[in-house]
Amino acid sequence: MKGTIIENISNLYRLADEDGKIYEANARGKFKQEEIIPVVGDKVDFTKLEEGKAVIEEIYPRKLYIKRPKMANITQLIFVVSSNDPKPDLLMLDKSLAFAEFIKTKTIIVLNKIDLDKKSEFEQIKNIYEKIGYKIIETNAKKGFGIDLLKDELKNNISAFSGNSGVGKSTLINSIFKTNITQEGEISKRNKRGKNTTTSTKLYEIEKNSYIADTPGFSTFDISEIESRNLAKYFKEFKKEIERCEFVDCTHIKEEECGIKKALTLGKISQDRYDRFCKIYHELKEREDNKRW
Question: How far apart are CA 155 and CA 284, in angstroms?
Fold first, then answer.
């Protein structure tokens, strides 16, 4: 039988077959010998045992694999930013968008808690990222605003929700299903940071061939797979400007005859985006230098 792994807790897997029936499954010992670990999103062949039990026999080749959190075959990343409690973390958003470009998957930016956007920051954020070419959806998850628009974008996709704890990922998912299927977090009154309530990666089926994932790992997003010298390739609006650099190995940081820096002075590239690019570049470069020593 064919199925999809929808949850993994301590090496016990939950599978959904092609009709949506759920099974608890173990993986064959051969996977451990071959150093293959089944992950959420994997398409598998399995054998049905007694009622509701199964064993995973084969894992189909993955179209996409993410190391942290471990997931396979997602087709879309939904990056959630809140207007307040916690405030927008655009550095993390840009890291996430760069990673999405790196793994070549579709992206949507959700601007949540629009009711708390008293300083109209979302308008500025929207202008920057729509100009680059990203799809933006504004939501108020608690009131249900924007949820239908978001649901339309989730059809026929395996979508993973990403964002800092407290931005409203679980609330969005609950609004999509119109039921409390995930635990909603509370914002710490002391430091205004969210408490992460999701403890395992899990796929929720919206309709046939449409799943969304609630994951615990994206709040500590790690893009170390990207080499610092290649980072600019994964900033969408930088790509065509790279061709105008005088030097092939231009880092786009200190060089004078740099296509990206020229575009910056002409207003083609946002100064804030460029500043965050520099910060991410230096983080990656420092990590690479430390590894060498």
Answer: 35
Rounded to an integer, what distance in angstroms lies between the CA atom of residue 171 and that of residue 85? 14
188 contacts 195 by C-beta, under 8 angstroms: yes
Beta bridge partners of 45: 2, 58
- A 10 A CB-CB count for 146 gives 19
pLDDT number for residue 81: 93
Residue 156 and residue 211 in contact, taking contact as beta carbons nearer than 8 Å? no
Longest dimension (CA), the chain: 69
Residue 216 pLDDT greater than 90, yes or no:
no
Which residues are registered as beta bridge partners of 24? 14, 53
Give alpha helix (H) positions in the chain.
Answer: 29-33, 90-103, 121-132, 147-154, 169-177, 239-242, 259-265, 271-292
Q: What is the mean pLDDT of residues 202-211?
A: 86
- The predicted model gives 98-103 an average pLDDT of 93
Q: Is residue 241 within 8 Å of residue 260, measured between CB atoms?
A: yes
| Residue, of 68 and 4, whose pLDDT is higher | 4
The pLDDT of residue 185 is: 40
Nearest of 247, 217, 203, 216 to residue 229 by alpha carbon: 247
How does residue 118 score in pLDDT terms, banded at 50, 70 and 90? confident
Task: Evaluate whether 17 touches 3 at the Cβ level (below 8 Å).
Answer: yes
Q: 9-18, pLDDT tens digit by residue?
A: 878 999 999 8
- Which residues lie closer than 8 Å to 15 by C-beta, 6 or more apart? 3, 4, 5, 6, 22, 23, 24, 25, 44, 46, 54, 56
User: Distance from CA of residue 170 to its chain's centroid?
Assistant: 14
CB-based burial of residue 50 (10 Å sphere; 0-12 exposed, 13-18 middle, 19+ buried)? exposed
Nearest-angstrom CA–CA distance, 127 and 142: 25
